[in-house]
Amino acid sequence: MNGGWSGVCGSVRCCIVKVMASKVQVGAKLETKSPGLPYAALILGWLIPGLGHALTRHWIRAALLFVSITSMFVLGIMMQGKLYQANLGDVLEMLGFVGDLGCGGLYIISRVMDLGHSAIQLATADYGTKYIVVAGLLNIISAVDAHNLRIGRKPAC
Prior knowledge:
Layout: H1 6-24, H2 40-47, H3 51-55, H4 59-78, H5 91-101, H6 105-112, H7 123-151
Helix pairs in contact: 2-7, 4-7, 5-7
């Protein structure tokens, strides 16, 4: 017995199940939205922060990403933060290197200019190192987001 809810309860349950099922069963679109190389936004977004979003014509988001990631990286360098090098000895050094390498072109330019190689001597230098790593991780996230926008997996706002 359903306690007097026989007519209403059956239709409400059916309605709730239909609404929930329609939201859960949405598949990912794998078709490309724009012509060209599907990985161009990913690679260009990794090399220069925000360039992947500029390629997908999200101008404001591209400018915000460029300014925020570049300023975090530059602040980290100005605080005498350490740039990690490829190292197979220590796991934390390897993870720091992956985070730094995520900055793409900023990391390459800094390595060429021989920045961030000194030992940490100030308390702020440790914060600078973290700024650089976080800037790299944010750049990786933004490049993947630009790739998802480019291939149509993520709907454009």
